[in-house]
Structure formats: structure tokens, C-alpha cells
Amino acid sequence: SDLKIMKWIQAPECKRPKITFLDFDMGKTCNLYYVSLRYENYEEERIYCGTDIKPGMSFTSTTSEIIMYTSKGRNDRNGWCAEVDFEDIPGCFQNKGISTNVAATNSDCPGPYNSSSGYFISPNYPGKYHADVDLKWILNFPCHYTILFELVIFDIEANSQCAFDYLDIRDGTNTKSYRYCGYYLRHHLKFDNHKLTIKFITDSSVQNFGFNITWTAKTAVCDPVCLNGQCTSRYICSCSPGWMGNLCDI
């Protein structure tokens, strides 16, 4: 029968994957028998079939990931065999990991944060996450910060209501909650609140491959610029006494 396999290879931090083919013998028709590689641009793939790849030929990603897809129909070809190594990324310095909440100078706005970026990974990542997980992270920055997320890879049991396994992101006031499940690749999120509580919840039924999420905290910049007032964390001008209007210019 036909064989279709997708393999997502992610290197450790500050490494990039290198695939070396030891053998490659696929069918000559690329629309039936092939190996495709994606790394620089996930929308573009490089397809190889027949004897396109010679033994010993290597492919090194310019990023930390390679997505590899194989389609092999019924034929008498041997297929392929490859090994994976991880090379250092020049000039890369390892992230210290997940930063959590730090002591606050008051109940609303914390003092200087010890890192402006970090990441979250699901338990056992890049393997399948465990059943009955209940994890929580807290990000808390000064009031004029916004927080950006990139869902590098996100694979959680899909459900229209995200009722079983999900990632719940809640703002500091608990007035807004965003729940995510399903599959995302290189998906970006932006939160205009300086404090977020992130919870990862799973049940005991289905376990997928989980997630790798990077986050960055940035100082909010008002647009338009406030003329006679202050910029709040939601990009709104808070006018000084005696001034009004969107730009505090009336």
C-alpha cells in the first residue's frame, strides 16, 4: 500500500539540523514517489525522486527546523535511509528558558523584568505530551509593555470548543480569556496587556505533539503620539488635566 509519512525535526537551542542520506532509491515519478524538504520557507518545498540524491549528500537547514515528507507508492525501489546531526548556529547564545513572575514594586506594575524574551514548551516536547496535565506560567511586565507570541509549532487535540486539551491565555484582569487547540505553524499572537497567565490543560484521552512557543515583551509605543498626556498599555492617550481628544490636543 501507499506510504505517507511526515517528520518534523527540530534541533536543540542554538543548533540546526543536518540530514545526510546514506541511500536514496525512489520511483522516477515525482508526483508518486518522492521526499520533500522544507526549512527556509514553510510554503516552499524541495522535491526529490528517482536517484536525485546521491549517497553521502547532505542538507543543512538555515533555521532550527526541517519538515520532511515522504510519499512512496507500490514499487520495487528500496526507498531511502538517512541520519540526522545537529550543527552549531554561529553567533547564537542559548536562552535561559522560561522566565516567570518576579517581585513587584506595587500590585499593578512590577519592577524591571529579568528577561524580555523566552519560550514555553509542552511536557515531553518534542514527543507527545502527557495525559492529565495542569501547568501554569505567568508573565508580568511594567504597565507600558505588550507581549508577542510566536507559535513555532502547535499541535494540540482539535475540538471546535477546545474542550479537551487546550492552551488558555488570560489577561491580568481576568476579563479576557483566549483558548487555543488544533494545529498552527509559525502563527503570531499579540497581547496588549502587560500581564498574562498561561495554562496548559489536557485530559486522559488523546495526546498530540504539543507546542513550542516563543514570547517577546516590548515597550508599547502610542500611535498616534500623545501630545499632552501619557501612553497607556493599550495604545490609548491618557490626557493630562485640562486636555482631551484622541491626541490630548483639545
TrEMBL record:
SUPFAM superfamilies: EGF/Laminin, Spermadhesin, CUB domain. InterPro entries: CUB_dom, EGF, Sperma_CUB_dom_sf. PROSITE patterns: CUB, EGF_1, EGF_2. It comes from the Eukaryota. Residues 109-218 form the CUB domain. Transmembrane segments: none annotated. Keywords: Disulfide bond, Repeat. PANTHER family: OVOCHYMASE-RELATED (PTHR24251). This is CUB domain-containing protein. It comes from Meganyctiphanes norvegica. The lineage of its organism: Eukaryota, Metazoa, Ecdysozoa, Arthropoda, Crustacea.
